[in-house]
Amino acid sequence: MQVPLFAAFSMLYLATCVGNLLIIATVYSNSQLQTPMYFFLTNLSFVDISLTTVIFAPTLATFFQEGTVVSFSQCLIQMHFFFAMIEVEFYLLTVMAYDRYVAICHPLRYMTIMNKPVCLWLAVACWLMGLIEPIGHTIEMSKISFCESHTINHFFCDMTVLMKLSCSSTLTIELLTYILGTLITMVSFVLIITSYINIISSILKIRTVTGRRKAFSTCASHLTVVFLVYRSIFATYLRPASTFSDNKISSLACIAIAPVCNPVIYSLKNTELKKALRKNKNSS
User: What is the pLDDT of residue 124?
Assistant: First the structure.
């Protein structure tokens, strides 16, 4: 199975990188797309590339090695950056919802509120919080011991699999995961929902059907991505440890679906981006 698996993982990784790099290149090569919404979209694309690189690059390197050994420190580093990239994605999706709220509910003040320094600081905050928060998990994971087996039955160093291999107590890690994970995801989710309640309320006040459709079209792609990300994370990680399984399919879906689909979703549902992509294609 090594050859077909290598081909499948390579195609997923290539599709993710090409699609998201195309989004980044299109935004920065088109002056009409130099807006806060597309600035955050390029950050989201970079997160998707980073997330899949953290997982797929080491995995692809091990397919044709016999007796593959990964040091515990390498395992912890991969686990840390995996959770860090997921958290950065949560924060960016929340900021993007706020951006849409300001654009639709306060259009005349949009460029004043979402000016370049504010957008830059929001992006930096998303990255810093995402990279710092998983440090607690990494430190606690570094303290666990393994007695029976050191073999990871997975394609990457997933925290759930490592906890199943441990013969020491993982209660602290589980509590940390549930408390911080639930806090981050639920606060982010509530803020997104609050933004969209205000957005929908403003859209319903627009008199023309064309105006309503145009306003909602700028949110459709973001809502689709939010659904994909939250659905995969909730199904995979925010559940009791006793129900964890070495289900590689659900983990692969968590890692690959959103990064691969994001460029497609934004390209199909966003009129401005579609025009820019078509323009770049014609000019080339």
Answer: 96
